[in-house]
């Protein structure tokens, strides 16, 4: 049985977009509006609104996965919302999950720094340049990934803003978390 149900993925990576606080809390942008990704697609403002509303009405949330693997949830997205810039996410890596601890270590080392959305296209059109403009998406999950498609969302450290951060600070945060976990 095919479990993806026509699910598509859009990867997002950028040094200014994903912040890590206290070793487990992460926040940033999983998708940016009006930016062409490496596949040529552009997500329109408001593309997630109906999906987020429906999820809220049904009491469900967007899943946090490792590399889009539905068998590897690594945390919980506590907040997922659209703003003028894109799809903002804030959540927690679960320190009781081995893969989440590994993700923290990989982020600290700079080996992982991308976000990717898993979605189904509900409505799309071609823009004047022949690019696919994604107008409505059914959002399923946001994953931490190795190779993002949109070079615009990453991981940062405590005290950083979403407008800029230093990956060395991020590495220090995760190194401290790694040491604490090793002592546990």
Q: Your description of this structure?
A:
- InterPro entries: Peptidase_S78_dom, Prohead_protease.
- It holds the Pfam family Peptidase_S78.
- This is HK97 family phage prohead protease.
- It is a single chain.
- The protein has 184 residues and is an alpha/beta fold.
- It is built from 3 helices and 10 strands.
- A hairpin with a 3-residue loop joins strand 6 and strand 7.
- Helix 2 packs antiparallel against helix 3.
- The longest helix has 17 residues.
- It is globular, with a radius of gyration of 16 Å.
Characteristic terms for this protein:
184 residues; alpha/beta; Serine Protease, Human Cytomegalovirus Protease, Chain A; ten-stranded mixed beta sheet; 3 helices; 42% strand
């Amino acid at each position: 049985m095919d479990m993806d149900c026509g699910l598509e993925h859009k990867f997002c990576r950028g040094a200014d977009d994903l912040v890590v606080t206290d070793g487990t809390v992460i926040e940033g942008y999983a998708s940016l509006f009006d930016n062409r990704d490496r596949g040529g697609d552009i997500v329109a403002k408001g593309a997630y609104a109906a999906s987020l509303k429906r999820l809220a009405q049904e009491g469900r949330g967007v899943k946090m996965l490792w590399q889009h693997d539905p068998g590897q949830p690594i945390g919980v997205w506590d907040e997922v919302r659209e703003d003028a810039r894109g799809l903002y996410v804030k959540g927690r890596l679960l320190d009781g999950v081995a893969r989440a601890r590994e993700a923290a270590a990989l982020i600290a080392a700079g080996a992982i720094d991308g976000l990717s959305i898993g979605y189904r296209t509900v409505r799309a059109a071609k823009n004047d340049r022949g690019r696919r403009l994604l107008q409505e998406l059914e959002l399923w999950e946001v994953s931490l990934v190795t190779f993002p498609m949109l070079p615009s969302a990453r991981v940062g450290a405590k005290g950083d803003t979403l407008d800029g951060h230093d990956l060395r600070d991020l590495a220090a945060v995760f190194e401290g978390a790694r040491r604490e976990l090793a002592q546990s």
